[in-house]
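Notes to self, Alliinase C-terminal domain-containing protein:
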Amino acid sequence: MEVAEGGRQSRPPAGAFLLYSSLLINALFFAHYFLISPIRLGDDGGSCGLSWALKAAREAEAVPPRTAPATGRCPARAPIVIVIVIVMHSGNPMFLEPYWTRHAAASAVVVSGWHRLSYRTTDGLFQSVELENHIRRLHKSVGNAVVDDKHLVFGAGSTQLINALVHALSISSSPPDDDGSAPASVVATVPYYPPYKDQTGMFDGRKYRWDGTTDTWANATTHHSSTTKNKTDIIEFVTSPNNPDALLHRPVLAGSAAIVDHAYYWPHFTHIPAPADENVMLFTMTKLSGHAGSRLGWALIRDEKVAKRAYEYVQSNTMGASRDTQLRMLGIIKVMLANLHGEDDIFAFGHDVMRSRWRRLNAVVSRSRRISLQKIPPQYCKYFKRIREPSPAYAWVKCEREEDEDCYEALLKANIVTRSGVGNGASSRYTRVSLLKSDDDFDVLMERVTDLVNAERYDAPDD
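result:
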């Protein structure tokens, strides 16, 4: 400030004071609006910038991962802990939750309320062409299926496609105008996945019926039984790796129309000896990425007419797979593709988890004379380019003691809920134990199995 004559200081111009005040007010407004309060919603829920997207993101991040075991435990704050049962009958793939927690940002999808309202995609189809292309890329990269000569059909999980394919194949095996022809026989090899039988019976189609196991038809052919029919009139379900025993299978009846379910034919569950190349193959995101609740499966079908019938079945049934699901699964597969053979490879992660669980379970059960597990040898895997140890999704448990005729009940007495082998067409001496659930669930399972095996010392008769 200049000093005026007589020693008095001169006042600043009024304009400068107003300028400084305006700059200060604007700076405060900017800091409050953009830095302190980034989310400012209008009456209609929207505003400038990314307000609604940020709000949606904050709500998504507030959702905690599921970590509690599926038991009857009281909360930790309770003074008394009561454990009723550990539920291990479900194929719920919660073991992959930690992987997706680590990839929360890359796998997240935010969809506005006005987006994807139409039944169809922008191409006028019920199936996303981009998702189809990424699924084909994934199969080629993993080397578990030949896709170039196949048509791809989406469904609400592979569960919906089970009957869609039976429908499509049963029509193709009978004359187009012959309503009096015998229905196609739907069969499977024991132990089989229960929905094959359940769905075939529930939908009760005129062109097909559940007709037992492959053993029945193989024996009929061997003995030239009068009940033998043309193999082209037989639809054979094959699960490889098998659910429940994790073994690789091929069609038993030569010439049958085979539906090969490859839900578990991925490197975290089994070795990949070669790309699968059957005429009709089933896959699902449930066991691939763990996203069971999103409900997306697909069939790879060589014959165009069969693929068209299966596609029309799905459109008539549900108007196609959910478009929101297709969008989300596209993002999930992109993350998987970006990390193949890297430090964050989902198949390496999944195999490490499942291999560790199988080792731990085997170590305990190997001491038992009461229960046993299926035998799975190490095998060379083309994806990992090495011998890999087994990492099955399920333990196929057999009760060896004569008095344990019902293995489900025997394990239930040990507070373990399983899935009886009777539903798989097998003996009641077998039961399926899921190894797919969370770490907490598996730890509780190991406690119960260890207690069951240790109890044998006290049950043994004195010498």
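- Confidence is low (pLDDT under 50) at residues 1-9, 34-48, 71-76, 223-228.
- The longest strand covers residues 208-213.
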